[in-house]
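Practice problem 4.
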């Protein structure tokens, strides 16, 4: 394939500790699992995950531009994955503010020629917060729909999932383990990942 027709894609993934491999005995996390299932030669696809533990959408809105500017290039196709945390309700951030934070990031990214992909918040280990997290997930999904951005719902498929709940309830840091990371990876890969990248899913 000639240099002229080759695509070079850079993907930055921003989120809280759930985009790290913390808690996963395999040390891959969901991002590692997605990366391993993403063909990366033609086009060349480089994925950079930048976790910030306990991050809210307000904190994310403050850091995202500086993070991507250091990793994107004018010569590459630049894409942004936002793995939305479930920290806003406990931090006292209103759903309207959460929505505005994410809408602003998506809109600013689009103006900079960066395509976004949203991974919704996962259920909280504190079940009393899950009603608010569900509203938050719905709000984020609405923001994405209005902008034609892919949104992967991780809340509804996981909130009653026995394996997911067992891991987050028994982990020291409230993060999923091998099962939970595998579930998130499956949802991402099967809810628009390859279509977003413009590549065929591997056989």
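Answer key:
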């Amino acid at each position: 394939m000639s240099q002229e027709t080759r695509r070079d894609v850079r993907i930055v993934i921003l989120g809280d500790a759930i985009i790290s491999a913390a808690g996963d005995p395999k040390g891959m996390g969901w991002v590692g699992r997605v990366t391993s299932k993403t063909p990366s030669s033609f086009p060349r696809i480089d994925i950079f995950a930048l976790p910030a533990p306990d991050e809210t959408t307000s904190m994310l809105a403050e850091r995202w531009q500086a993070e991507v500017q250091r990793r994107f290039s004018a010569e590459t196709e630049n894409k942004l994955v936002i793995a939305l945390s479930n920290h806003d309700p406990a931090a006292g951030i209103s759903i309207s503010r959460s929505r505005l934070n994410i809408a602003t990031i998506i809109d600013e990214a689009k103006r900079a020629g960066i395509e976004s992909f949203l991974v919704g918040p996962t259920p909280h280990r504190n079940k009393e917060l899950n009603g608010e997290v569900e509203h938050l997930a719905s709000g984020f999904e609405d923001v994405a729909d209005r902008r034609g951005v892919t949104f992967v719902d991780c809340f509804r498929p996981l909130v009653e999932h026995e394996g997911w709940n067992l891991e987050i309830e028994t982990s020291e840091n409230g993060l999923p383990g091998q099962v939970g990371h595998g579930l998130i990876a499956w949802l991402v890969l099967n809810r628009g990942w390859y279509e977003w990248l413009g590549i065929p899913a591997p056989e």
